[in-house]
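thread from #wetlab-drylab

HS: before we spend reagent money on co-crystallization trials with adenosine monophosphate, can we at least see a predicted complex? here's what I'd submit
DV: go for it
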Amino acid sequence: MPSQAAGNRLVGIIARRSQSEFFMKVPLCSLDFLERAETVYPDRIAVVDEPAQPATPLSQLTYAQLGQRVRALSAGLDALDIAQGARIAVVSHNSARLLELLYSVPAFGRIFVPINFRLKPGEIEYIVNHCGAEMLLVDPELAEVVSGLKVKHRLVLGEESDRLHRFDSEPRPWQPDEDATATINYTSGTTAMPKGVQITHRNIWSNASTFGWHLGINDRDIYLHTLPMFHCNGWGMPFALAGMGAGQIVLRQVDGPEILRRIERHGVTVLCGAPAVANIILDAAESWDGPIPGSGRVRMVVAGAAPPTRTLERMETVLGWEVCQIYGLTETSPLLTINRPRGEWDDLSPSERAQKLNRAGAPVIGARLRSDESGEICARSNVIMQGYWEQPEATAEAIRDGWFHTGDGGVVDDEGYVHIQDRKKDVIISGGENVSSIEVEDVLFTHPAISEVAVIGVPDEKWGETVKALVVSAGEVSERELIDYCRERLAHYKCPTSIEFRSELARTATGKLQKFKLREPYWKDMDRQVN
Ligand code: AMP
């Protein structure tokens, strides 16, 4: 018989061994989602490419074919000696090839940098240089836009980029690390230049699994890519969808009647978009002949800005779709909250239900949200970014005391639902795209006739908010000239749609612009200060 002490030692050894030797922690990796589809649903149609595009479309691919292309692409990057950790930037409209890159680049340890295709050459150049991209892939229609850019490898998506694929070799294995950066998504915020949000494999995993669960993504779903894939990796939906073997229909350009036609043709069940997209679909429904496609079947996720209650109600009454609101940021991968019609609301009228849905939503599993002393919404979750690429100070400002500071002002109600009421950050959201006021002010300031400028967001029926510049001019210049001046230098959606000339602008005693005072007259009849 072993002595009591020896027995205790043995138990101790086994406990230690079981911790060190038997404990299994499999790194969460973005490839997990596609790998499951390849194993379980190899013959399913994974993606139907956009037929009307400048490159030869890929037509349709099964999950087995998509998986093969994804691996062949990574093997091709190996052949070019593009190391793990290298950044691969892409400027493209939605396409099957863009989707393929989203699955392929991070899966074998490189970092994917999808860039907004609406940006001007100088804006794209800033991002490509800032992230130190080794390769830039570009939509054929945008090839001219980036022709002057210096980058080691530049390829046009289509036949040229397809030559990268190496179907005869396997990609170099990557030792998966769930904390490695998978993507860098540039977002306009409080600074003049956009910041690169580092999203890790773990972030992707948490976002995709909670999003998929809350939305009930399943193997019968067919998703329409109305949302630009560059925007926070299509909100991470491509991962959630692949995990369940759901089909994906690519849409290159948002167009109301075409969205309805594709929903009908492909039996679409899910789509995502900004409130402006929901309104475009509602407009198309007005002149649609016959029953609305997807009625009683489609669920549409709306976010990026607060949808008007009337839009939410009409989505139910005019389209017959289920509408869910979510809230989040690029910095949060993005999913923080969801507001999906609950069982308790079944007996409400559509207008009462729309009132309930007109809140950003309740925290998703694993997210904790609170409104701090200043009324700013703060979040804790596994979807919070790793940081801003090469901007440790901006990261430290955003993530403080274990909480991510969203820059959105709001409250959490008694049911735990978040209401977004205003914005602490100087950002305008027009049609779901973020515009940094400072960036637009900086451009206007370079015009010789401008002595003072303040750029603000004002309510707009179609876009939620639109950009307005208040200027004090030192010389002769017209509103049209100033708008055109901005359009030459900035993406169209960032440019003012109106300019007002003032003799002075409201400032504090220390000379700081009082934006809230300047905004006041335009927002005074609204129940919240953002749209
Ligand atoms: P982005 O990083 O481009 O996704 O923009 C994130 C910002 O969009 C947030 O900080 C909010 O200001 C805004 N936003 C996103 N979803 C909502 C929502 N459901 N309601 C109100 N604002 C939203």
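DV: The chain is about 35% helix and 25% strand.
HS: ok that's useful, forwarding to the group
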